[in-house]
Write a structure and sequence with these properties.
Number of strands: 6
Structural class: alpha/beta
Number of domains: 2
CATH class of the largest domain: Alpha Beta
Helix content: 40-55%
CATH architecture of the largest domain: 3-Layer(aba) Sandwich
Order of helices and strands: HEHEHEHEHEEHHHH
Distance between the termini: 42 Å
Largest sheet: 4 strands, parallel
Radius of gyration: 26 Å
CATH superfamily of the largest domain: Resolvase, N-terminal catalytic domain
Length: 246
């Protein structure tokens, strides 16, 4: 039996998640692996290796996907590449086509456990192109909706709240001022007055974000910001950036 024929009973598996939240979803790594394992068993395929890109966007190129790159490099003549869904390979239609052609050049093939686009007929080829194009469209739609939502959130939040800073368009906790913010909220929740909190901060030599003395009105704003749920809005604002990159 030639090596190519022998490899037709051999497969490699490629898994990808773009963010931690997918771990608990239907697209989590464990779920993908289990579905791929069951599919291989039904098809009489032996999986020789699993390649996993965790926390990697489907829009990134091969150079930024170490596991995908390793898989393509180690792929053998006649083998099958198993994926849970085609969008695990990429959410960029051109990159998906490039990867598929790279695989086909060594007489290997990509099979989706979900079944979409499997096969060699012209209709199967057309279905793969449609699926890949829709995956890219879906990604762009998510990004567009997120952009609108973030713009609304930015307007609602106004200027950057004390204790936070903006990095690459998203709010993150400022290591210098966020502990002070926590102290203010904690002391206020313990019943201390706005004036007493401001007075103690000034005695401790702690300045406002503008380098000035604290006044009761600034303490009141931080407390109101916290109790009105805007801190939670900031968390959603930051999470939205992550969720737009799938």
């Amino acid at each position: 039996m030639s090596s190519a024929k022998a490899n037709k009973q051999t497969a490699v598996a490629y898994l990808r998640v773009s963010r931690e939240s997918q771990v608990s979803s239907g697209l989590g790594l464990a779920a993908q692996k289990e579905q791929i394992r069951e599919y291989a068993k039904r098809q009489g395929l032996r999986i020789r290796k699993y390649f996993t890109d965790a926390g990697v966007s489907g829009a990134k190129g091969v150079e930024d996907r170490p596991a995908l790159n390793d898989m393509l490099t180690s792929l053998k003549d006649g083998e099958t590449v198993l994926v849970f869904k085609r969008d695990r390979i990429s959410r960029d239609a051109f990159l998906s086509m490039w990867v598929e052609r790279k695989v086909n050049k060594i007489n290997a093939r990509i099979e989706s456990v979900s079944g979409e686009g499997n096969g060699d007929s012209p209709a199967d080829e057309m279905m793969r192109r449609i699926i890949d194009a829709f995956s890219q469209y879906e990604r762009e739609q998510i990004r567009a909706r997120t952009k609108v939502a973030l713009a609304k959130s930015t307007k609602a939040l106004g200027q950057t709240p004390y204790g936070f800073q903006r990095v690459n368009g998203k709010f993150v906790k400022c290591p210098e001022t966020y502990p002070i913010r926590e102290r203010i909220i904690r002391e206020r929740s313990e019943g201390k007055s706005y004036n007493s909190i401001a007075t103690q901060l000034n005695k401790d030599g702690i300045k406002t974000s503008r380098g000035k003395q604290w006044q009761h009105i600034q303490i009141m704003k931080i407390w109101s910001h916290s109790t009105e749920g805007k801190d939670q809005m900031i968390e959603r604002f930051s999470q939205a950036h992550k969720d737009s990159d799938i």
